[in-house]
Amino acid sequence: MTLPSEFGSIRELRRNASELAEALLEANWPENSYPVDPILIANRVGVETFSAQLGNDVFGMLVKPAGSGRPQIFLDADQPANRFRFTAAHELGHYVDRSSRLDGDMAYIDKRSDNDRGNAEEIWANEFAGNLLMPRAIIQQLESEGLSQFQIADQLGVSFDALKYRLRMLANAA
Ligand SMILES: [Zn+2]
Questions:
Q1: In what order do the strands lie in the sheet with 58-64?
Q2: What is the pTM of this model?
Q3: How far apart are the CA of 129 and the centre of ligand 1, in A?
Q4: Which residues surround ligand 1, an ion (CB under 5 A)?
């Protein structure tokens, strides 16, 4: 896989995604409030979001014409609520990533059948989504209150698998 030149390693790429997610939360979301609503945050930063029938294979997409064209996220209505939220956060991640380093039009389509999850932009968007929906400070707070991992996933509105992955990433980054 190829990394954008500004990232020397996957670790740096993940750290960058994590920092931008934290900055976005700090500017657009009340501290320690959960579950985080990625749709509301997208709207606050000028990204329109739509729930639509996107067919059997598409989770979501981000499009933005070059120039002053407005960014739009389309989310397939037929996905479980947790998955819907994760897809919204992932597409918002593509927008934040691209806006931070490149001009021009944007077009990302994320499919259930995708086999490019190892692609740098996909790793970035997934790391961003994980950080946005499962902020480190909130996970630590819920852990200190004695909640189980199932309860934490439920409180944060994410799947148990998404939480387990996030906990693994946090342990690796420590
Ligand atoms: Zn993607």
A1: 48-52, 72-76, 58-64, 106-111
A2: 0.93
A3: 10
A4: 110, 122, 125
Q: Residues 31-69: pLDDT tens digits?
A: 999 999 999 999 999 999 999 999 989 999 999 988 888
> 56 C-alpha to center of ligand 1: Å?
17
Domain tally for the chain? 1
Looking at residue 117, its pLDDT comes to: 67
CATH code at 24?
1.10.10.2910
Residue 53 is assigned to a structural domain of this protein: yes
* Residue 146 domain flag: yes
Measured in Å, residue 89 CA sits from the centre of ligand 1 at 10
For 83-123, how does the pLDDT look when each residue is reduced to its tens digit (9 = 90+)? 999 999 999 999 999 998 888 888 999 998 887 667 899 99
108 Cα–ligand 1 center, Å: 6
Q: Is residue 1 part of a domain?
A: no
Which domain does 95 fall in, by range?
Answer: 10-173
109 C-alpha vs ligand 1 centroid, how far in Å?
A: 7
Distance 150 CA to ligand 1 centre (A): 26
Query: What percent of the chain clears pLDDT 70, i.e. is strictly above it?
Result: 95
- Strand-pairing partners, residue 63, are 72, 107
Q: How far apart are CA 63 and CA 47, in angstroms?
A: 10
